[in-house]
Amino acid sequence: FEIDGYLNYFDYDSAALRKPALAGLLFVADYLKANPIIHILVEGHCDERGTRDYNLALGEKRAEAVRVQLTKMGVDRSRIKTRSFGKERPVVLGTSAESWAKNRRTVIRLIPE
Hints:
By secondary structure, the protein is an alpha+beta fold. 39% of the residues lie in helices and 22% in strands. It has three helices and four strands. The protein has helices spanning 19-34, 52-72, 97-103; strands at residues 6-9, 39-45, 80-86, 105-111. The protein is elongated and about 40 Å long.
């Protein structure tokens, strides 16, 4: 199980974790607990709708939701950084429901030692 690049997707205008995300984050938490020297960055992303400031705030809420869940699963909070990119780094360009759904996400990145 590779956690670098691990994705969670969110509903429109929401920072609530979906049920499939909780199962996946359990694997991430287990990996981190088994590898205590690893630190991660949780990137929060949004679709193109909404203002820049609104999306930066929502992206931060999404990243923080992942951090809170991993902490509840036993990972030391100090090992998890968060950063919001708002709508600045879409993974898919376009104005369709499908592209918006893929851009409403968090991405876990390993922080180099």
